[in-house]
Write a structure and sequence with these properties.
three-stranded mixed beta sheet; alpha+beta; single chain
Length: about 140
């Protein structure tokens, strides 16, 4: 499995750092951006673990200016596809609960960000897990 960090991801990192710096200060803003990029990777690893459980080859995971992606071999196993589509948001929501178990503004901010990642990925628009679920469950 290959890891790809697209140059456009620097834009995402800078945006996260600037937005969180407004709320938390520059030092914490940069740390929040690092943690959030790590959270995106954990989300993608959720997909990876679900796919590997079903023997589906993972070609690459990575981060771009739009967030994360998992490139893999195609599969006709709809159950594996559903599990994979749900595993990323589940990983993000698990991180939400982990961050919520700590006190402080930094942890609250990271918990909220992971809840947004997990829940917004279930909306069936654009390149989201929700759209994948919709295509799997309602084939053309």
């Amino acid at each position: 499995m290959k890891f790809e960090f697209k140059p456009s991801a620097v834009v995402l990192f800078a945006l996260f750092a600037a937005l969180y710096a407004l709320r938390l200060g520059w030092r914490e803003g940069v740390w929040a951006a690092v943690v959030l990029l790590g959270s995106i990777l954990v989300h993608e690893l959720g997909h990876v673990f679900a796919l590997r459980r079903h023997g589906i080859e993972i070609k690459a995971i990575g981060i771009t200016h739009l967030g994360g992606f998992t490139r893999r071999a195609s599969s006709d196993n709809w159950f594996a596809e559903v599990q994979s589509a749900l595993a990323g948001p589940a990983a993000s929501l698990l991180l939400y609960f982990i961050f919520r178990s700590h006190s402080g503004e930094f942890f609250t901010t990271m918990a909220t960000a992971n809840a947004v990642i997990g829940l917004s990925n279930l909306i069936p628009i654009g390149p989201t897990d929700g759209r994948r679920l919709l295509r799997i469950l309602l084939p053309a």
